[in-house]
Amino acid sequence: MAEQTRTIVVTGASRGIGHALAARFAAAGHRVAGLSRSGTAPEGVLAIACDITDADAIDAAFTRVEEELGKVEVLVANAGVTDDTLLLRMTDEQFEKVLDTNLTSGFRLARRAARPMVRARWGRMIFLSSVVGMLGSGGQVNYAAAKSGLVGMARSLTRELGSRGITANVVAPGFIETDMTDALSEDQVKDYKARIPAGRLGGVDDVAGAVEFLASDAASYISGAIIPVDGGLGMGH
């Protein structure tokens, strides 16, 4: 049976994993809006400039999506930032900025997305975490805390909204070839590959495939789950 087309919002759609996700959904025939600070997104995607740390900006973006594409049925909260430094050097501002963008914004997006999903009694919320959220990483206390927090959020949303046909899941990528990993040295990449049972870094399509599945009708009985896309690095956490 053919998959029903849906209205999908992807945050952080200007580059990397978010860009690949938005493009993949659009290629499959879905109605896709890509939110980013720059307001850029792949061809065939409704590009909207949005600061996801601002609840009013999120509301305005969703209102535009509803007017142009229809009620949002799938939320993919992908946008994130890093600001790495060791604990004793990390400022409150560095900690709070990363938490605000990577975790609190997930709450803001979920709160706004839930309204039409509850009325429709159908919805998918997918949060992009990281292997770091479960394994930890020196110099990333802020990032790891935010990414692990998404797990508790998704599981609480599952308990609140599960009876309304809404699922909430977490995809936890490992080391994926993006602009961020391009900045790594050859020795760093070699070290990471040695720790990954698959023996390679992942590609954005590896992550997109998992997200696409969780957004589908086939995943209706999966909720509150962590789906690792890390080549075995975290061994399922």
From TrEMBL:
Gene3D superfamilies listed in its UniProt record: NAD(P)-binding Rossmann-like Domain (3.40.50.720)
Single GO term (MF): oxidoreductase activity, acting on the CH-OH group of donors, NAD or NADP as acceptor
InterPro entries associated with the record: KR_dom, NAD(P)-bd_dom_sf, SDR_fam
Residue ranges occupied by any Ketoreductase domain in the UniProt entry: 6-207
Pfam families: adh_short_C2 (PF13561)
Entry's Gene Ontology BP terms: fatty acid elongation
Signal peptide region: none
Keyword entries, A-Z: Oxidoreductase
PANTHER family assigned: 3-OXOACYL-[ACYL-CARRIER-PROTEIN] REDUCTASE FABG, SHORT-CHAIN DEHYDROGENASES/REDUCTASES FAMILY MEMBER
Family of the protein in this entry: Belongs to the short-chain dehydrogenases/reductases (SDR) family.
NCBIfam families, sorted: PRK12826.1-2
Full protein name: 3-oxoacyl-[acyl-carrier-protein] reductase
